[in-house]
Each structure stands twice: as C-alpha cells, then as structure tokens.
Amino acid sequence: MPFNVTQDSEIIPSLGSHPERTTMSPNLTTENQALRAKMDDLLEQAAHNHQIMRRHQAFDLEIVGAGSFNELLTSIFQTLPASSDLDVVTLTLIDQGADIRTVIGNLGIDFQAFPHLIFVESEARLGPMNRPTYRPSMGSFHEPQHRTMFPTSAPTPGSIAIVPLLRNKKLIGTLNLGSLDTSRFTPSLATDFLEHMASIIAICLENVISNEFLKYIGLTDPLTGVYNRRYLDRRLLEEIGRARRQEYGLSCMYIDIDHFKKVNDTYGHLGGDEVLCEVATRINAELRLSDAMGRYGGEEFVALLIAAKPVDAMRVAERIRASVAERPFHLSSGENLRITVSVGVATFTETDRTESIESAAQHFVAKADHALYEAKENGRNRVTSYE
Predict the structure, then answer these.
(1) Has residue 1 been placed in a domain?
(2) Total domains in the fold of the chain
(3) Which of 14, 118, 289, 310 is such that its CA lies 20 to 30 A from the CA of 92?
(4) How confident is the model at residue 252 (pLDDT cuts 50, 70, 90)?
(5) Do the domain assignments include residue 299?
(6) Residue 16 φ/ψ region, left for φ over 0, alpha for ψ in the -120 to 50 degree band, beta for the rest
C-alpha cells in the first residue's frame, strides 16, 4: 500500500489508490494459521494451568482444615501426589528424643499405615541440603545421597525435589517430591511455588502436632506420664464395642498400692510421688503395646488387656505384683523401701454383651474393683480374680 507524506512528516496510508483486496497472500495465510495455532495452544495451556491452580487451592484448603495428624498425613501422601502429578511423596520430620513418635503413637496413630513418613533425630541426618539458605534442592535422584528420603517401599524416582520445611527460621523437616520423569525437577526450575506450598505444610504440621500434644496432655496424668481416668473411660467404651464386634477377650486389672498413706506419712508427698511413678513404670513394663494402662485416681491404676484370656490376665497380674514386691524402691532422699500392690482381675464375658456399652463398662470395672477389695481383705500383696 503506498503512503503519502504530509507537511508534518506523518506517514499515512493513501485512500482510494487501489481497489479493495479480498484475498490474502499465501504468506499471510500461513502466518495467520500459525498465530491461530499458537493462540489455541496458549488457551489450552491457560486452561491446564487453571486446573492445576484449582487442584492446588483445593489441596491447600484440605490440609489447612486437617483436624489431626492422621488427616494431615493422609492429605500429604494421597491428595498431593494426585493434584501435582507426582509418582512419590515422602515426609521427613526431625524428632529429637522421639517426642513426636511417642505422643502420636500413644494417641493411636498407626505408623505402619504411613510408610513414607520418616523420622530423624537431628538435622544432620537429613542428608544433602542447600544449607544455610534452606532453598529447595532439585535434580536427578542419586541412590547414596537420597535413598534415606525415598525408602525402598517407594518407587525410585528419576528426578526429585527436596523442599525444606521451616517454622520461625527453624528447620522441622523436609517434603520430598519424586517423579519418574528425569526432566521434571531440574536445578534451573523456579522454586517459588514449592516454597509457598512447603510453608503452608510446615504451618499445618506445627499446628496439628501442637494440638496432638495438647490432647495428649489432657489425657495423661501429669505426675506419672501414663493415661488418666478420662482416657481410660473413653478407651474402655471403644474396646468393649470392638470386643463385641470381633468377639475377642478383654480383661481389666484394678491395681492399688498397699498402705500408700503410710508411705506419704513417713516419706512425705515427694517420696509418695516417686513411688507412684516407679509403680507406673513397673506396671507398664509388663504390658504389651496394644494394652492400655492409666492412673485411675490416688494410688490406683487400671489396665486393659486387649485380646487376653482370663488365664493370660492372671499371669500378667502376677508378674506385675512380683515386679513391685521383689525389688526395693530407691528414693531420691536415699531411703530404700519395700512396696507391694494388690490386683483385682475381671474378664469381659458373654453375659455383659446384653447390656449397653456404657453400662457394661461400669460393671466391668466394678467387677475388677470388687476383686481388688477381696485381695486386700485377704492380706494384700496378692492377685484375685472376680468370680
């Protein structure tokens, strides 16, 4: 198209110089088709990115709403891989002194259900990381360096991202992402999104772990560290219901320290507290992980033996009695004293199954308490079964 030059040197197209053209040159047609194809690709990519963003927003809402450690782990190990097209996700937590494992385990979390959850004692056990900046580390998977973060139970990834989890500038663990695609995670990949996701997960982890600790504190005796009556009453209802459904044996031991008032009068409350703690320790040592024991009040303890026949319960009760009576108690004041306990044992029977769970629980403990009373009446330092 020719151009006219005005006095102000503006270039404008001349009008009417040629008739209107209705056809497009081959070059323009090809260029137009290429632009349309590129626009379609951009629209398709925009739609794909929008779907990814919505999936990640849904994941964020899911983990923020997690009310327990179990729920949060389920979201991390199931929802995150699906929403991010990942082949493996593992989580490593720093747990010095095994405090998290102890508390969470005592609250009933089955760690075997989460094989991709890994605990380490210190930051030094985390392996290669971008210290001290704590930025995500990405690249190819190397067996010697990264196997501790990707156990053999997980697929061996081609490329990985090790994303630090930070709270108040303190490292609490790492989120470990793996893909079978060797080009998925490369050192040149931008990390803003990964760091954002890790910060949310770190906050959620800290919150649920803190809540679990508070829950644990509310269900444990602050002096002895064993469960309290509130927990035992709740656990008893659960176990009776489960025993009815699965038809297994359930036994209850009611344990009382003999002449405990005399201990307090002679050695003071500090000495009495030490005796309570040591008795709790010796009782626990004779129980299985599946059993439950707690301080029921004062110098009384109750233990629930899961899937235990009467003869087995009596055998365990006798071991507890002997472990207390046969070894002296050493107080911090230097005194050594002999302590004994009396134990009443009851077994959940078929006749109990006709009652409501609440009523059955009350009668079950009452039977063990009655057996304990008989043990004390017959001289203490003995085990008596409810008849």
Answers:
(1) no
(2) 2
(3) 289
(4) very high
(5) yes
(6) left
